[in-house]
Specification:
Structural class: alpha/beta
Bound molecules: glutamine
CATH topology: Rossmann fold
Order of helices and strands: EHEHEHHEHEEEEEEEEH
CATH class: Alpha Beta
Strand content: 25-35%
Strand order of the largest sheet: 2-1-3-4-12-11-10
Radius of gyration: 15 Å
Number of domains: 1
Number of strands: 12
Helix content: 25-40%
CATH superfamily: Class I glutamine amidotransferase (GATase) domain
Distance between the termini: 13 Å
CATH architecture: 3-Layer(aba) Sandwich
Largest sheet: 7 strands, mixed
């Protein structure tokens, strides 16, 4: 059976993530309920509004299911709001989070002047040249703990990190036609088996 990749579908751009995985070697499925999450080999937490996704995670018992999936070592990838939810610390905010990655993030960190922008980003471990990266009211990482690898920076700002089974991007690979970041994530499932 092909790998089952769940896309957390509580709020945000989950439809774009589903589309981005649909032509790749996996079974992609929208997940909302704890039971559905626990059936997945890997999970993506999409971009959106991290406070809203966090509230819904609490309300539906989804947070516990994600923590259990992590305990099993399943790859979990957060994009943008998803990165914020994975972080242990969120600068100046007490909002709910999973707190799995030993990083501090700052929300809306690129400021009001540049709410969104695109750039070509070289990524550690991804061959074939820079990846087109779309940033939308994006966070960046202001601190990384031990065991956190920095995979990409934009100027001097950390925008992609990995810690074991956890991957986080401040940008949105699901909004371009390039599937190399998705392939990289699928590779993390294979490496685990
Ligand atoms: N600014 C949003 C937040 O703080 C994240 C934006 C996004 O996911 N594109 O939750």
């Amino acid at each position: 059976m092909s790998k089952r990749v769940g896309i957390l579908a509580l709020q945000g751009d989950f439809a774009e993530h589903i589309e981005a995985f649909s032509s790749l070697d996996c079974t992609v499925t929208a997940v909302k309920r704890p039971d559905d999450i626990l059936e997945c080999a890997a999970l993506v937490i999409p971009g959106g509004e991290s406070t809203t996704i966090g509230k819904l995670c609490q309300r539906f018992g989804v947070g516990e299911a994600i923590l259990e999936l992590n305990q099993r070592g399943a790859p979990i990838w957060g994009t943008c709001a998803g990165m914020i939810l994975l972080a242990k610390e969120i600068k100046g905010s007490a909002q709910w989070r999973l707190g799995l990655m030993d990083i501090t993030v700052q929300r809306n960190a690129f400021g009001r002047q540049v709410e969104s922008f695109e750039t070509d980003l070289p990524i550690e471990g991804i061959a074939g040249g820079p990846v087109r990266a779309v940033f939308i009211r994006a966070p960046f990482v202001t601190r990384t703990g031990e065991g956190v690898e920095v995979l990409a920076r934009f100027e001097d700002k950390i925008v992609m990190v990995r810690q074991g089974n956890l991957l986080a991007t401040a940008f949105h690979p699901e909004l371009t036609d390039d599937s190399r970041v998705q392939q990289h994530f699928l590779g993390m499932i294979e490496a685990k088996q």
